[in-house]
Amino acid sequence: MKKLSILIVIVLVLAAIIVPQVLFVVDETQLALVTRFGAPQLPAKTNPGVYIKTPFVEKVTYFEKRLLLFDAPPEDLLTSDKKRLRIDVYARGRIVDPLKFFQTVITQDRARSRAIDIIASELRSEIALDPQSDIIKTTREDIMNRVRDRVIPQLAEFGIEVIDVRIKRADFPDEIADSIYARMRAERVRIANRERAEGQEVDLEKRATVDRMAIEITSSAQKEADIIKGEAEADAVRIFAEALEEDPEFYTFQRTLEAYKKFLTQNATVVLPAGSELFQFLQSPGQVTPESSID
Does the pTM of the predicted model rise above 0.70? Predict the structure, then answer.
């Protein structure tokens, strides 16, 4: 029993040593290349699974199957009008040929360094073809496409497929940014003041037009009102004249009553001659008639 236990332990130890030398695993995020004394053994392992290799003779080198990021540091570049821009660019790509990658750059760090150098060089050439203002406003997309097209065949020599090239930032250098921003602010202030002045001018024109229209409408309405009032007064005078012609005595009596109404107020003192009609009316109100007042 003791010998069996020792045998089992020996078998397990040997298995732990030999199995990793015989079998290797490639997962879905990896590419693998087997080398024998440094010489690549084809084909490369591009699909996930468990594979066999010759123990102690062959070695497995793994590569990243997922997208790689080649992020170049920001750099001040000259444009076609001899102005500087601080450009920050990056590229994305993946390893599609493990053999070519192994034969050229071997490691991902070295590949990243070479790719960044190539991207920066091509970007420098493309930036030099466009003026500063166009790069900031309109041509950034075109520049990225041109750089991508020029970088693709160069990185393909390393077994890398370039997916995209992007400019993260295209800005003025720090030493001139403040003055440029101050000039931009001054320009915006000038434009704002001009637009305010134009707005005030339009406002005054609108107000003047509305005031003139209000005066015209008021004057027209007043004119029509005066005409209507004059016609009404004329009709009133005509009607009153016609009534007066029909009964002058009644008109005289009415005018007398209106006069009495005005000066005979409460607690009023009136001094009248004894023979006046009003005195007789106050002495005997029921005995004075319109006819007697006329007589």
Answer: no
